[in-house]
Fold each of these.
Amino acid sequence: MAVRPELVKTRRLVVKIGSRTIANDAAFPARLAGQIAELAARQCGAVVVTSGAIALGWSRLGYKAKPKEVALLQASAAAGQSVLMRRYDEAFAELGLTPAQVLLSYADLADRERLNNAREALGALLEAGAVPVVNENDTVATEEIRFGDNDQLAAMVVPLVGADLLVLLTDVEGVLDERGQRISVMAPDAQWTQMSVKSDRVGSGGMGSKVDAARKASRSGAAVVIAPAGRANVLNEIVSGADVGTLFPRLGPPLKARKHWIAFTLRPKGALLLDAGAVRAMREGKSSLLPVGVAGVSGAFNAGDSVRLLALDGTEVARGLTRLGTVDVARAAGKKGAELEASFGAAAAELVVVHKDDLVISG
Ligand code: GLU
């Protein structure tokens, strides 16, 4: 019986698979293929986000253990990605499914034009009935510009393909409470840091990252389920509304894809400190941030970059795209009227630091 009826209507699902599953469960790709074929039969498209390139690659290069240096990890990923794809290719082909490799880096998704290209390509693949198989483009991703891990990447793929469900597969039953019991439905305000977090040495995610990714994806209007990869028919159980894993219900109203991108994909390049009046105005959600509300600035950014908007006590109030670079914000901060005009001339009348269309309240 469907105890989660809202999942029964799922039309597009993103499923994330960890390195541990790929490395330890040789039968997994075939099981996944079977489930995706069943999903297709119920008009539900699937996008796979998979780790495992590094886990499958390092021994092929003669390394004795998983390396720690970035260059060796990148090399491992390059050696393992083709093996990873071959596993999916073979398993999917058995059932007449066509997997299609998509490698993404943070720089691709941080750039609107490249992101739109990725969106179009993914859309065309789904339209053609193929199954996009996404991984991070590890050879060009150094530590500073990584997605973090593939749980985070999966959360960014959700708005990109307009998915209504994200399933993060793992090797435990779901999110566990202090007594080790599975939590069936996560309350929107639950503190995940209190819960037992199982460390994950093969992959890089761990439960903390999954819960974080789940929260992000749920802001785009998707439901999220963290569920065990080892369960035979787990995806179809989930879209049949069964009580499997931990559900993060859809949090409405969903952020539009562009606002979700500002809030969760872009990395802030600096911060603006807001006075109390500006904090109130931001939280009401209807105003742009004007120079007069800015009390301080940190970081080094240009017009168009992402910045954090902080209250004076350091709490993050919002994120947004700034229309002024660091130097101009510093010059304009706290000013209005004639004072602003003295620094910026006639342009002062239209000076906005962060326009409300480019602003997302943190929450
Ligand atoms: N992209 C890495 C790989 O395929 C894994 C990243 C992660 O573990 O999240 O090996």
Amino acid sequence: MKCRRCKAEAEVALPSHNTAFCRDCFLLYFSRQVDHAIRRHAMFTRADRVLVALSGGKDSLSLMLELANLGYSATGLHVDLGIPVSSERARKRVEDFCAMHGLDLKVVELAAEGLAIPEVKEAVYRPVCSICGKIKRHYFNRMALEGGYTALATGHNLDDEVARLFANTLRWDEAYLSDQGPCLPDEGGFARKVKPLYRLSEFETAAYAFLRGIEHHKDACPYSPGASFTSHKKLWGELEWKSPGSKVSFYEGFLERGRPAFADRDREKGFELRPCASCGSPTSQELCGVCRVRAAVAERRGG
Ligand code: AMP
Ligand code: FES
Ligand code: ZN
């Protein structure tokens, strides 16, 4: 197969786009998709400072490298979850990557915050993954606001977004459907959240990471039974196979026509948000959810 742009031997086939590219033209295509997403949704400009949440996986590291290559001002943020072996490996991947490419990195250690995930797991009687996600988002937000960054970027790709949207559509979750997308504005104590990889599939970010020689963390979290939305992703893989372009059109169609139909159905509306008495994050209670988890961990330690 030949590259669509330059007619050299193709290295990456993209059935969704009915095309194939050689290495250089694929990297150019990837850059253009990222830049197009950023500009189309006015996520940020080259004058802004962006904080990029780096898990050590292929998506977030690819995003960071591409933002730096495109000339955006990007600083990495890694949240070290304090899980033996797995967190050490993930953190080392992120640190080595940033050192190799001369990129700025900030690290939050949950153990130093009294929130090491193994301790949280023992102290709280809910599934640890959802609490872990909440803790990560809490620190993403705090670090972005405290550091004066314009936006907080995550490495969510098209497959992540489609699978999540699909799951929420199956449940007709109005709060979610009213308020989801690749660029959520800063308001009410929340930093702007952006997902510049939302138009690129998991396969495309994996191909990018491979072609750029990015060493990434591949191990699954020891506490989660598997990646999230695995069965929905499989289903969408089949749909895409039979009808290339389905994922992008489902997601873009939602942004254009679905989301506006659910405007103002936000579950949070009606709740008065105020600053947490301990950390200042927005919450509807005296203490925010993360400070309550921290208190539960401290109590368990003390008792
Ligand atoms: P996940 O929910 O694990 O698929 O992660 C989605 C996105 O969240 C990643 O692409 C990262 O941008 C970010 N992320 C996840 N875990 C971490 C972490 N421990 N530290 C920093 N960012 C993270
Ligand atoms: Fe948070 Fe597994 S419990 S990544
Ligand atoms: Zn708090």
